[in-house]
Design a protein that fits this description.
single chain; about 400 residues; alpha/beta; Metallo-beta-lactamase, Chain A; Rossmann fold; seven-stranded mixed beta sheet; five-stranded mixed beta sheet; 13 helices; about 25% strand
Length: about 400
């Protein structure tokens, strides 16, 4: 169903209410999502992106109800990941001679996913533009590695709309379409979760790209991302927030994360949290069992934290596999300017704390050498080490 965005621009995407995971099962979706495609009808008619492959037939049929497909003068493919390009093959069966504009790497990605196609593809780079009539044009801005090498954004003059692709989006189904109509608590929580788990590994590039976009001196009245709410109310607020998030962001929070076998490591985790509350009542403290909490939500908590403490018992001369996977994922997100400490119980060989320390350091955290390493179950002697650990973690 077509939804009006501004003047001659419409949303023609797919509201994915039932979506529960994304990127396979690697990203959890709690409030649905949307795949946003846009139709521009000026002197020229332009389609910006399509929707995910499972919805390709619905997308094409719905588009047919809104417009004669043969009236589409060209298609802009901002990004070839299949949640954006997944309906291209189905659409191009209907209009095979329609030109497509994208980056050179986007062509490689489309052909890699869908096979070589005999399509009329034109490559563009930052600063290239196309006149779409009525005194308006589209200007292309490469967004390399935000978050794929082929990504770009498209700016529409006159209406001052930035079709930002994956940047500034959220996995959040907003029936009312716009940021000012969305539940603000959910909107910002999902925007942060999206940034942390998808965009943050490229944080230095975010800073540079935002500076580049600002240097173009383009007035922006609307930011229309590929997922979630369209930013029409003070759209630059999400840009300014991205700048803040990309700059080694932290809040006054410490997060304690652990898994446990027989409860000993869990006891240490809660004692550490209690000591943080004692030493620094103004600090937000959160405690999570890694095995029982969604990893994407946990990474959002780590992102907000100035320090973390991570615990695991020793199991087969190693740490628990749940903690291993968690730390590997955390390393890939490339957090900066955060401290970390390790703790855990053991019965025989006792390697877990050392392994945790090595992995935390390898993930880019400033390691606090103080630790709690408890034989069998923690004793008062073990708990007595916690105040110094917390003191250095908060310092």
């Amino acid at each position: 169903m077509r939804r009006h965005v501004k003047n001659n621009v419409s949303w023609v995407g797919y509201m994915d209410w039932e979506l529960e995971t994304f990127h396979g099962d690697d990203y959890s979706v709690d409030n649905g999502s949307s795949q946003n495609a846009y139709l521009i009808e000026e002197g020229k008619t332009v389609l910006i992106d399509t929707v995910w492959t499972p919805h390709r037939k619905d997308f094409v049929e719905n588009l047919k109800k809104e417009i004669d497909l043969n009236k589409i003068d060209f298609i802009v493919a901002n990004h070839a990941e299949c949640d954006h390009s997944g309906s291209l093959v189905e659409l191009m069966k209907e209009i095979p001679n329609t030109p497509i504009y994208c980056t050179p790497l986007c062509i490689k990605s489309i052909e890699g996913q869908f096979g070589k196609q005999n399509w009329d593809v034109h490559t563009v780079k930052t600063g290239d533009s196309i006149d779409i009539g009525n005194g308006k044009k589209l200007i292309f801005v490469e967004m390399r590695m935000l978050h794929w090498p082929d990504s770009m954004a498209t700016y529409m003059t006159g209406d001052n709309i930035l079709f930002s692709n994956d940047a500034f989006g959220q996995h959040y189904a907003v029936a009312e379409l716009f940021n000012d109509k969305a539940d603000q608590a959910i909107l910002w929580r999902e925007a942060m979760k999206y940034f942390v788990n998808i965009i943050h590994p490229f944080a230095p590039l975010v800073t540079k790209k935002i500076a580049e976009i600002k240097s173009l001196n383009l007035p922006i009245d609307i930011i229309a991302p590929s997922h979630g709410a369209i930013w029409r109310d003070n759209p630059m607020q999400i840009v300014e927030t991205y700048e803040k998030w990309a700059n080694a962001y932290q809040e006054n929070q410490v997060t304690v994360l652990y898994d446990t076998m027989w409860g000993g490591t869990e006891k240490i985790a809660h004692k550490i949290a209690e000591e943080i509350e004692t030493q620094s009542p103004e600090t937000v403290v959160k405690v999570f069992n890694i095995a029982k909490k969604d990893k994407n939500d946990l990474m959002t908590e780590v992102f907000k934290s100035k320090a973390i403490a991570v615990g695991s018992p020793t199991a087969i001369n190693d740490i628990l596999s749940t903690v291993t996977g968690f730390l590997a994922f955390m390393k890939s997100l490339k957090f900066k300017n955060k401290k970390a400490a390790a703790f855990g119980c053991y019965g025989w060989s006792g390697e877990s704390v050392k392994i945790l320390q090595e992995k935390l350091k390898d993930a880019g955290f400033a390691l606090v050498e103080d630790n709690v390493k408890s034989l069998w179950n923690p004793t008062d002697e073990d708990f007595a080490k916690i105040p110094e650990l917390v003191k250095n973690l908060l310092a």
